[in-house]
Predict the structure.
Amino acid sequence: MPILNPMLIKRLSSFWQILVLITTQTLLIFSSGSAELLLKKGDRLAIVGDSITEQKQYSRFIENYLLACTPELELKIFQFGWSGERAPGFAHRMDNDLIPWKPTVVTTAFGMNDGSYRAYNEAIGRNYEQGTRRIQDRMKEIGARMVVGGPGPVDLDSWRRDRPDEDKIYNDNLGKLSAIAGRLAKERGFAFGNLHPMMMKVMADAKAANGAGYHVCGGDGVHPAANGHLIMAYSFLKGLGVDGNIGTITVDMKAKASASGGHRVIASEPGTVEVESSRYPFCFSGAEKDPNGTRSILPFLPFNEDLNRFMLVVKNLESEQAEVTWGDAKKTFPRAQLEQGINLAAEFLDNPFVEPFQRLDRIVQQKQQYETNMIKRIVTNFRQIRNVVGKDDELDELLAGVYGKLGIKQEKYQEQARASVQPLRHKLSVAAK
């Protein structure tokens, strides 16, 4: 049990009522089951939001996961983050900037800027609701499925640290905007990511263990580092309904091994197996308490339990415990745990998949940077051309050709990212102790 300093206890106690109110919601969010899969093979997924989306972290985590952990879906993914954006602003430009790419699934994360960084009032709520309603209604018109995120929170400590209680005031505002987004999503039959209460809960738990200096919503209090972005990715992936089953490897101490879920046995002897995997587990980065990596938030977020289950089951083990070797790492487990199954992705954070997963991440980062430049520097300016020229069929045809040319290059990045997820051979051994 970590020892909390008095100042931290006082700070966290002020959020007791908030945490009590959201306990039921977060228990539902963190349940081990998933919603029905929202995605279909060949879907075109658009990840939409403000500067937090334009950071290209949670959007990368989502894309990395869907390409590596669910490659059979063969998805095409686009990132549409825009710094400073509000829901009404995106609603105004979505027909030009988003609709031409023919998305079939859309995630949205607006509200941080819509709250205007002050206490909530009716005008703030009304403007946010109008913009959010327009976005959701338009997605309904084109037949796109949605996961609505709403805004996350500001950090309990790094947000305006020189002005006490400012975080409480603004998080109250953001919580109200989140509720508006959720209500509208429910009315239209869309999935709701419920980012705000989830991030509040995880942030409180992480700070209780790691101290107030461990930021979850970024050093500036608004833009999360990798730890906060993993929470966001978790929320959207849960909303998309992925089941989290990466696969199972069964090692028999007296017979040959077997594998399922995108994995096949190349060779095996009792206690050892070589496997070829076409599906990867999600891999993490950073040090144990570094907010700039994803590992540090794992004790407070059921990412591996819900979304990243790569199981090893051991049969016919006669000793009370055994040493499992995977790649360069070794770890000892009791027999009962091995018989039930251990999650390799959670137990071996350093594993044979880390390097190819990092290679995929670098390609996805380049791809999403191209998408940012494509939308912000080129595509959005088509609106100005139309305003000057007016309604003109020939102009529309020319612009459609430009969309197509830009899309060809985006597709090349997409193909490169997908092609980087090559079947990987790796070895596992189990030695009785």
